[in-house]
Design brief:
With 92 residues, this protein is mainly α. It contains 3 helices and no strands. InterPro entries: Uncharacterised_YqhV (IPR020390).
Length: 92
């Protein structure tokens, strides 16, 4: 039996990414099943909500796990980068 010594924050990040990936694959399969451009467009629009949530959640969990290991300035820079990514997704 293999026992992994894994940090809780890392485990939660892995689980969130697996859930996000599963949602993406499920959405692709639904698009294939419906075989309709309009329905595929709606499914894709819903995915645009899931992606940023997963990004923010995993980054937040990671930063909480690293809180004692990285400086406040570095945390602010990381969160600023995430905010800029989210803003750039909304700008036409």
């Amino acid at each position: 039996m293999v026992v992994f010594n894994i940090e809780k924050a890392l485990l939660f990040m892995i689980v969130f990414r697996l859930i996000g990936g599963s949602i993406e694959v499920t959405a692709a399969m639904l698009m294939l099943k419906f075989n309709d451009l309009e329905k595929a467009f709606y499914i894709n629009t819903l995915l645009a909500l899931v992606g940023p949530f997963i990004l923010i959640a995993t980054t937040g969990i990671g930063m909480i796990g690293l809180a004692e290991k990285i400086s406040l300035t570095r945390m602010i820079c990381l969160f600023s980068g995430i905010v800029l990514i989210l803003i750039s997704m909304r700008v036409n």
